[in-house]
Specification:
mainly beta; Immunoglobulin-like; five-stranded mixed beta sheet; four-stranded mixed beta sheet; 3 helices
């Protein structure tokens, strides 16, 4: 070629591209890839231009593969392990400038990615998870580079060398989903059954501590307004929980699907724990709920209800040593108590639930009278039991029981000869039947009896209270000849009895309705039984009373009396 200045232009073959323009001092590509032309070269006579028009070509390559979900976290992709669907950012760097990104892609739904049309060279890929719930699998643990994870778990990066024409398709990134606990709930177990029922709410601001089996604390959490706690992004391993329960509360029974916390004095920091659980990659434990309740109190008082009105009066004594038994909702005996000196009893710190109490009737008294339960108290007089009642967490209930001994009312009906209302020593019992009725305060007949030949009558098993007695005589007096009045004559008296009292002083004196006395008014001079002369009666209380007219006349008007006259007189 003659001396002169020359340039060269080259056209790359299909699928090839010019290599980057090299340093003129270095043997390399002399063609500018942007123009496909060299720089001008001046050749003098005798000079050689060899090496001035070198051209380097390459085929572009791609880096591709997939981020997979390493469910067992062993660093090897196994047949049943799928692509990671969570989305992951991948940034490409030139290894000579690892802080300056070249390109960025986001994985598809199946975890796949590709960096196309790359020139050969040294690169680094940085994998950045979209959240912290995943961790990278161990790096290069298998012999098959296309089946294991290539990413450094500490940096999230992998170095890749590519050469012309050779696509890289074995850059894998295995991610394992970190195990977690929750959300679980700490709740107040209102009915104490260990399960969180629909109406039972969570307890806020309760400290929950997560520990390893050796007691080392792994994490802690504070329950939210709904009583929920969580421990996300844990490392695989074994764990247990301990919960700072509310003051005064007690753990519910451990049941499947409910409370999992029980007392364990040897466990720090709170003297309770859950079962130990083992977490693997991808596990989410939602079983460790914690249910607790505020113990309930069922108490009461037993007293001697002297008037059997169901109300404890200040003067009524309490009863000590009365046995009270507590039963649960299944009618099973839970516990028993005897009343204290003040008559009180109490079942404390019992779980929430359904309960009723039953009193064991005390022994009969020395007279053989059985104790009875007053009406209008909390115990059924027939069963001696309270009504089964549901006690929710923290509730209290106090019931009352008044006991009484039946009273006795009665005594004696006598013939009041003089009739002064006083049972004189020589006055005899009224030997005819007298009907005696016992009325309550509402005027209802509660018992009825008759006096016997000795004039005695009695009402037994009487509930203490206020009553009235009514005495009914169909024939008045011992001598029925002089009594021609067939209409019953009645008399009543009031009486109040208290428990265990034998009220035997309710006597009734009977006088003859036909009492005759002498009457000299206006010189009548006859015996009569119509009306009384109180003044005369006071002066002559012994002499003037006669059970029949004949005796009266014989004593006071004998001088007028002959058999014939007496017949007409009578």
């Amino acid at each position: 070629m003659p001396p002169g200045t020359y340039t060269a232009t080259i056209f790359p073959p299909n699928d090839y591209q010019l290599s980057p323009l090299s340093d003129p001092q270095v043997v390399g590509n002399d063609f500018d890839p942007s123009t496909n032309t060299t720089v001008p070269v001046t050749l003098l006579s005798g000079e050689s231009g060899v090496g001035s028009f070198d051209a380097g070509f390459y085929e572009t390559v791609s880096i591709s593969n997939q981020v997979f979900e390493d469910t067992n976290g062993n660093g090897i992709r196994e047949p049943m392990e799928n692509g990671y669907p969570g989305g992951m950012n991948i940034t490409l760097y030139d290894s000579t400038n690892p802080d300056e990104p070249i390109a960025n892609v986001v994985t598809d739904e199946d975890g796949s990615f590709i960096f196309p049309d790359l020139p050969p060279g040294e690169y680094e890929l940085e994998f950045i998870p979209d959240d912290d719930s995943v961790t990278f699998s161990p790096q290069d643990v298998g012999t098959d580079d296309c089946a294991d994870s290539d990413v450094d778990p500490n940096t999230g990066r992998v170095a890749v060398t590519v050469v012309s024409g050779e696509d890289i398709t074995c850059v894998n990134a295995g991610v394992a989903i970190l195990p977690s606990i929750g959300p679980n709930v700490v709740f107040e177990d209102s009915n104490g059954n260990g399960l969180q029922d629909d109406n039972e709410t969570g307890l806020p601001s309760v400290i929950v501590v997560l520990s390893h089996p050796n007691g080392t604390v792994a994490a802690f959490d504070l329950t939210n307004a709904n009583g929920e706690y969580s421990f996300p992004n844990l490392q695989p391993g074994e764990y247990y929980l301990s919960v700072n329960k509310e003051p005064g509360f007690v753990w519910s029974p451990v049941v499947e699907g409910g409370n999992q916390i029980s007392e364990d004095a040897n466990t720090l920091p709170y003297g309770n724990r859950s079962p130990t659980i083992t977490l693997n990659f991808g596990d989410v434990d939602t079983t460790l709920d914690a249910g607790m309740y505020d113990p309930v109190t069922f108490s009461g008082i037993v007293w001697h209800d002297l008037d059997a009105d169901g109300v404890k009066d200040t003067s009524e004594p309490t009863l000590e040593g009365i046995v009270v038994t507590l039963y649960d909702g299944n009618d099973a005996s839970v516990d028993s108590r005897s009343t204290n000196a003040d008559g009180t009893w109490s079942f404390d710190d019992i779980p929430a639930g359904t309960y009723h109490a039953k009193i064991t009737p005390p022994p009969e008294d020395s007279s053989g009278n059985a104790w009875m339960l007053s009406p209008n108290t909390d115990f059924d007089p027939l069963t001696w039991e309270t009504t089964p009642t549901f006690f929710e967490s923290g509730s209290t209930s106090e019931v009352v029981a008044g006991l009484y001994l039946p009273a006795t009312i009665g005594e004696y009906v006598w013939f009041d000869e003089d009739p002064n209302g006083i049972q004189d020593g020589d006055e005899e019992p009224f030997d005819q039947p007298v009907t005696v009725r016992l009325y309550d305060e509402l005027g209802t007949v509660v018992q009825e009896t008759e006096s016997n030949e000795a004039g005695q009558y009695q009402f037994t098993s009487v509930t203490p209270g206020s009553y009235s007695l009514e005495f009914l005589l169909l024939d008045a007096g011992n001598d029925t000849v002089v009594d021609d009045d067939d209409t019953p004559v009645t008399g009543r008296t009031g009486v109040t009895v208290v428990g265990e009292v034998d009220n035997g002083d309710n006597d009734a004196g009977v006088m003859h309705l036909g009492l005759f006395y002498p009457d000299w008014t206006n010189d009548v001079q006859m015996c009569t039984n119509e009306g009384y002369d109180p003044a005369w009666m006071e002066m002559q209380s012994v002499n003037y009373l006669y059970k029949n007219k004949e005796e009266c006349c014989e004593d006071h008007f004998w001088w007028r009396m002959t058999r014939k006259y007496l017949r007409s007189f009578l």
